[in-house]
Each structure stands twice: as structure tokens, then as C-alpha cells.
Amino acid sequence: MTVAADAQTIINVSRLRNKFGVQVVHDQLDFSVRRGEVMGIVGGSGTGKSVLMRTIIGLNRPSSGLIEVFGKDTSKLSPRESRALQARWGVLFQDGALFSSLTVAQNIEAPIKEHTKLSKALRQELVDVKVSMVGLPADAANKYPSELSGGMRKRAGLARALALDAEIVFLDEPTAGLDPIGAAKFDELILELQATLGLTVVMVTHDLDSLHAICDRVSVLLDKKVKVGTIAELIREPDPWIEEYFKGPRGRAAETAKTHTAPHISGAAMAEGATRTAMPEQREAEQI
Ligand SMILES: Nc1ncnc2c1ncn2[C@@H]1O[C@H](COP(=O)(O)OP(=O)(O)OP(=O)(O)O)[C@@H](O)[C@H]1O
Ligand SMILES: [Mg+2]
């Protein structure tokens, strides 16, 4: 019996191998995500976080291994089944990855147009709902991505990822590049959506504050495999990278910030965004 037979498991990856030329990125990697959880993915630069995400959503064909989403082996789907599966998840790529020649509304409408036969009026209504769902002002809908701030672009990207009522959202570094207040607000939005829509969230991040604030479990890419657990469990792992990451000064600061702002990100915590451990630029720089 595979793990996917468990109704709780929404994504099951087993014995995954990814190889580019002579470089082996993943080797016999096992990874699974439960319905409704927020799963963080961390690891040093180049350890294969983005490749793992891209492999699950079918943008990268693995050298070998099994990928099951909603209990279906993704390598055995017809093009039609594959499209149906794609409509059940949303993806927020780094930088929002919006089409720059389309307005926010047109960006959000794109997947609706592609996957449904809804009328123009209904599509428009859906777009309006999604725009307000992610906390964007109504007039943002008619703007082009270049006319928005970084935080607004992330929200617009999220609105597009949720356009089709996704059950799973994949987020690649959603808070990178945001100021601490913007990042805390984005975390809060993800949590709110997860709680109200019952979303399952898979989030690649370098942001320790996000990990502490919103992730139920965290997967650490190490030695071409994944170590998974709650932060409390991972901290007990005798691994130098994990120790440095979670128990180093920034890890401890994030832990303290979480203790002081529980539950999750409160309004007060957002008001004093400085409780986040460092400016994103610093956080990014230190990871390189
Ligand atoms: N299409 C590809 N062809 C060749 N090599 C690739 C390809 N995609 C990824 N790689 C390599 O696989 C490794 C993992 O890349 P990946 O983008 O998953 O890293 P990452 O963990 O997301 O890093 P970062 O934190 O810097 O974003 C890197 O060494 C990268 O160069
Ligand atoms: Mg990456």
C-alpha cells in the first residue's frame, strides 16, 4: 500500500531522483503533504527546493520516482486528466510571475478562461472576488504589474493562483523582497486563506519568521533527501545545517518573535513589523 492510500495525504513523492547531466539533485527522496497543512520547504541555495516544486507540478520530468497528487500517479495521466489536475492547484512563482502585458484582472482571468467555459460577465465577477480576497483595492484590477508595488504584485500573483478555487497552492519564496510589515501581512493572508478555504499550502522559503508563523511542518532539503518535522522536532536533529539554521542568532530571534506574537501574526505584531528578524534583503543576502 502506498502512502497515498491514506486519505490525509494529498501529495506523495517517493524514491524521487532528479539528475541534470552529472549533477544529482534528488536521490531516493521521499516527501509527503497532508490535506490542509502548511508545509514549508527550506534548504541551502541549490539544494533543489524549486526543482522539487517544479517536479510535483509537472514542469520538470524526474529521472525516476513516483509523484502522486490527490492519489493519482501524475506520470500516468492523459493530457485531459493532467489539465483537470492542474486546475486543482495554483502556483505563485517567485516575483509573482505575472504576464507584464496584461492587467491584473486579465492575469487573474487567464486561468479561468483556459480551464472553464464561463461567460465574460461571470469571469469578471470571479476576478472581482479574487481581487478583494487577497486584499487588493478594486482599482488595482485595471493596473499593469509594473504599476504595482512588490507586495501588491505578490497579492495579484496569489489571486491568480487562487483563480480556480485551488485546493493546493505552491508558493516559491512568497515573502522574499517584501519589507517586514508587508511580509507579516502576506503571512497573515496565507493563514487566513488556508483557514477559510481549507487550502493546503506548500511554501518554499528562506524566511524564518514565515516558517515559525505559519508552517505546520517543515521539510529540509539535505543530502539530496528531505528531513521533515515540526520546527521543535527538527531542532533536535543532530545535523550541522539544521542547527545553524534554526538555532543560529536569526533562528532564535524568529523563535522569540513568534513566542511574543502568538497566536500567529496578530494585528499588533503587524503594526510593529520590526519584530521580524531582519530586513528581507539581509535575510536573502545571508542565505547566499
Ligand atoms: N533545468 C535545469 N537544468 C540543469 N540544472 C538545473 C535545472 N534546474 C535546476 N538545476 C540545478 O539543480 C540545482 C537545484 O536547483 P534549485 O533551483 O531547485 O535550487 P534551490 O534549492 O531552489 O535554490 P535557491 O534557494 O537558490 O532558489 C541547482 O544546482 C541548479 O543549477
Ligand atoms: Mg529556488
Task: Report on the architecture of this protein.
The chain has a domain at 37-60 and 83-88 and 167-287: Rossmann fold (3-Layer(aba) Sandwich). Helices cover 41% and strands 22% of the residues. The chain is built from 12 helices and 10 strands. It has a 6-stranded mixed β-sheet with strand order 6-7-8-3-9-10, with helices on both faces. The chain has a 4-stranded antiparallel β-sheet with strand order 2-1-4-5, covered by helices on one side. Residues 49-50 line the site of magnesium ion.
Ligand catalogue: adenosine-5'-triphosphate, magnesium ion
Residue share in helix: 40-55%
CATH topology (level 3) name of the domain at 37-60 and 83-88 and 167-287: Rossmann fold
Task: Report the biggest beta sheet as strand number plus sense, adding barrel if it closes.
Answer: 6 strands, mixed
**Helix tally?**
12
The dominant shape is globular
Radius of gyration: 19 Å
Quick one: CATH superfamily of the domain at 37-60 and 83-88 and 167-287? P-loop containing nucleotide triphosphate hydrolases
How much of the sequence lies in strands comes to 15-25%
Q: How many beta-strand runs?
A: 10
N-end to C-end Cα span: 41 Å
What is the string of SSEs from the N terminus onward? Answer: EEEHEEHEHHHEHEHEEHHHHH
Counting helices, strands and paired strands, the structural category is alpha/beta
CATH class of the domain at 37-60 and 83-88 and 167-287: Alpha Beta
Strand order of the largest sheet: 6-7-8-3-9-10
Topology diagram in text:
Layout lengths: L8 E12 L2 E12 L3 E5 L6 H8 L7 E6 L2 E2 L5 H8 L2 E4 L11 H12 L4 H14 L16 H12 L6 E5 L7 H18 L2 E5 L3 H7 L2 E6 L2 E5 L1 H5 L4 H8 L1 H13 L5 H5 L8 H8 L1
Parallel strand pairs: 3-8, 3-9, 6-7, 7-8
Antiparallel strand pairs: 1-2, 1-4, 4-5, 9-10
